[in-house]
Design a protein that fits this description.
Layout: E1 13-18, E2 24-25, E3 40-44, H1 46-49, E4 90-92, H2 94-100, E5 104-109, H3 119-132, E6 137-141, H4 145-157, E7 160-166, H5 171-179, E8 183-187, H6 191-205, E9 208-209, H7 218-222, H8 224-232, E10 240-244, H9 249-264, E11 273-279, H10 284-290, H11 317-326, E12 330-334, H12 336-350, H13 356-359, H14 361-370, E13 379-384, H15 392-400
Parallel strand pairs: 5-13, 6-7, 6-9, 7-8, 10-11, 10-13, 11-12
Antiparallel strand pairs: 1-2, 1-3, 4-5
Helix pairs in contact: 3-4, 4-5, 8-9, 12-15
């Protein structure tokens, strides 16, 4: 088999720009947060990128997220760490659409990624950049799936990985991280407690922290979900996207991607209306959105069966809330028992064995339809962010209901 070519290898990154104060930093350096404490975002020379990144050119590129190389930060092809991530199915769900009374409903099934979740996208790019920049030891706090993805890509790259997970994280995630050779640290509490433990050890152990939005590259991997949607919808955009939101990197990344695609000439000014889906036991974005706030307050005693949604206060809260309002979308919370019912319904109606985070989108869309916040004639895309195989204990409960 010949060498895989990942696409055009021109470096189009112009700067790292703060999402809050807009301070600019030069590209090609190790970077975490801005001096103001907010996330940095990668900026590109999109006029230059547009010369080669055309939808026609993509026909000859491999079906992975690296097909969008002109708008990804890795310029050294030898640094790319890949397990075949990206270009996941966009599944039409006519039976489910009929049950809901809507014209067109699709599920973007991220369980087809390596490690079984959408976390593979962000970690593929973050680990590739770490390799390019000469970093040797990476660490992440995680409710489960980010830990597994980091461990896998670090193993693929020959780097060290330290993962901090809540002691009650799903067994599959814990075993996965250990199998890939990561150092697993179990912490009492939530992902916020894991982050504090990582910070305490960071200086002594020499970690580079790849936490959600604490470095600028995971969001670049996640944004490729939007590029794929436009390709898979033959140049169009959906009317509505429902996205399970914990840290919100994917939502932030997709909004960034739609802006980039307009500059590239792929789409016009149209945007989908974005809805963040959270669990009622941990819904900081829903509460802040409903109260008209620009930042979220940390949820005390956060709890939900959907581990990936149990983020008491996301670092990118101000970005998420701004995006929801600019897109004319919103935020909706669902109950744990609704998630369990949805896991079973999606399996029996459409043959999809989904994670609880993805399942949360189904009761959310039902609520939005019931309250007239979305219209039955709109084209809806729901995101399933991972495989149900990682949550077999929850499936025992779901099937017993």
């Amino acid at each position: 088999m010949g060498k895989v070519c990942y696409g055009h290898g021109v470096m189009n990154v112009t700067a790292l720009v703060c999402s809050n104060c807009h301070r600019s930093y030069p590209p090609g350096r190790v970077a975490q947060l801005c001096e103001c404490g907010k996330p940095l975002l990668v900026q590109y020379d999109l006029e230059r990128a547009a010369r080669t990144l055309t939808r026609r050119a993509l026909a000859h590129r491999p079906p992975t997220l690296w097909r969008y190389r002109e708008v990804l930060p890795v310029d050294d092809e030898a640094a790319i760490v890949s397990l075949g991530e990206g270009f996941t199915p966009l599944l039409a769900c006519p039976r489910l659409a009929a049950r809901l009374g809507v014209r067109a409903l699709f599920i973007k099934d991220e369980s087809a990624n390596p490690t079984g979740t959408f976390k593979a996208r962000g970690m593929a790019v973050a680990v590739s950049m770490a390799r390019q920049l000469g970093l040797k030891r990476l660490a992440v706090p995680s409710a489960g799936n980010a830990a597994g993805a980091l461990a896998a890509y670090a193993a693929r790259a020959g780097l060290e990985a330290d993962v901090f997970m809540p002691r009650d994280a799903p067994l599959a995630n814990r075993r996965e991280a250990e199998a890939y050779g990561a150092r697993l640290v179990l912490v009492e509490g939530l992902i916020t407690d894991c982050a504090r433990r990582l910070a305490e050890e960071k200086a002594a152990r020499g970690y580079f922290d790849v936490s959600t939005l604490k470095e600028p590259y995971r969001v670049e991997g996640k944004k490729t979900m939007a590029y794929e949607l436009v390709e898979q919808m033959e140049g169009g955009v959906p009317d509505v996207i429902l996205y399970p939101t914990g840290g919100g990197t994917g939502l932030i990344g997709m909004w960034k991607a739609f802006q980039e695609m307009e500059a590239l000439g792929w789409i016009g000014a149209e945007r989908p209306r974005l809805f963040a889906v959270q669990a009622s036991g941990c819904a900081p974005i829903v509460r802040a959105f409903q109260e008209g706030k620009t930042e979220a307050e940390e949820v005390q005693k956060a709890h939900t069966i959907a581990a990936g949604l149990c983020v008491p206060r996301p670092l990118g809260d101000f970005l998420i809330l701004d995006i929801l309002r600019r897109s004319r979308g919103g935020a909706v919370a669902v109950e744990d028992h609704e998630i369990l019912d949805a896991m079973r319904e999606l399996a029996r109606v459409e043959g999809l064995f989904v994670c609880p985070e993805g399942a949360a989108c189904l009761p959310a869309v039902k609520k939005l339809l019931a309250h007239g916040m979305i219209h039955p004639d709109e084209r809806l895309v729901l995101f399933n962010t991972g495989s149900g195989l990682k949550y077999l204990s929850l499936w025992e409960t779901a099937l017993a209901r």
